[in-house]
Specification:
Blueprint lengths: L1 H38 L2 E2 L4 H22 L6 H25 L3 E2 L1 H24 L8 H31 L7 H39 L2
């Protein structure tokens, strides 16, 4: 009887082990195919109009900064603001050319693009150089500070939403033609949202550069 029970338990153990092996192999296979799916690149050339608008804003910022520089102001609050705006302008230009040279993006590429916006534009440009406008002794900047800060918060939230969606769509699950199509649509949407973040920030910088010239006479 003991021998029978022992053999019976061995059969159960072997069955469980086999089931676990089959289940693990199944998840390994679907995870592999999904990982290959999210590595595929999407073409973003159809969104060039967004980049054109971004570049147009950046060019106008440059014109405004050049106009201020021609006034010959080299000290004081207005010059400090000019210096901060110019630093942020340089960041936007560098990011524009990095984006413009790539027409194909994978999920990882788009995620890194959004991460770069957060680290270089929001964390460095805004937080380090421009968020102090709320304490500025330049009335024009101090007055618009609440509106600008609200816009920055909205941009930050939209960027976070795009990054979270990319992470969710990159989570491993069984990929069909329908889910593959859906993933690509989401990636295109997330790319557009991140490019909109760059463009919206450029518009804020453009607005601040216009205020700089209105007051720095």
């Amino acid at each position: 009887m003991k021998k029978f029970i022992k053999e019976y338990l061995n059969i159960i153990a072997i069955s469980i082990t086999g089931f676990i092996f089959v289940l693990t192999s199944f998840y390994f296979v679907i995870n592999y195919y999904h990982s290959e799916e999210v590595k595929k690149q999407i073409y973003v050339g159809q969104t060039d109009s967004k980049l054109i608008a971004y570049k147009d804003s950046v060019d106008k910022i440059k014109n405004n900064l050049d106009a201020f520089q021609r006034k010959g102001i080299t000290t004081g609050s207005y010059y400090n603001m000019y210096s901060n705006l110019n630093t942020c302008y340089t960041t936007l230009v560098e990011n524009y050319y990095n984006i413009e040279t790539n027409r194909y993006y994978s999920a990882n590429d788009i995620y890194n693009l959004g991460g770069k916006f957060q680290s270089e534009v929001l964390n460095l440009c805004w937080a380090l150089h421009l968020s102090s406008i709320k304490e500025s002794n330049i009335n024009n900047f101090k007055k618009v500070s609440p509106i600008v800060t609200s816009e920055i918060n909205s941009i930050s939230k939209n960027t976070n939403n795009a990054l979270e969606e990319i992470m969710n769509n990159s989570s491993y699950f069984y990929t069909t033609k329908i889910t593959s199509f859906t993933i690509r649509n989401y990636l295109t949407s997330d790319y557009n949202m991140i490019i909109d973040s760059y463009q919206d920030f450029a518009n804020i910088l453009l607005y601040l550069s216009e205020l700089l010239n209105e007051g720095g006479n």
